[in-house]
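Example record

One chain of 94 residues, shown exactly as stored in the release files.
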Amino acid sequence: MPKRKDFLTRFGAKLDIPRESLPGSFGLTLSGQEELVVRGCKKILSYGKTCIALRVGKTALYVRGESLFCSAFGAGCVTVTGNIESLSFGEDTQ
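Predicted structure tokens for this chain:
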């Protein structure tokens, strides 16, 4: 599998394709503590006002804070707004 990733990474670089657009990749953009954009999200695993879990690649991304809200979800892109306190990665148990 590592050879395939190396090939995809090189191929994407030659075509100027963003890394998060490649299979199994994702990207995060945090704007202050109020907005997070996740590209390459496969699924919303759990949704609550204090924690939102997203499947990214083969892992889970946990967004923790207060008054969290998914303001957009589509085409593998999720926008989370609210008072974001922490981001962490963990096992995807679902």
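Notes: The longest strand covers residues 59-74.
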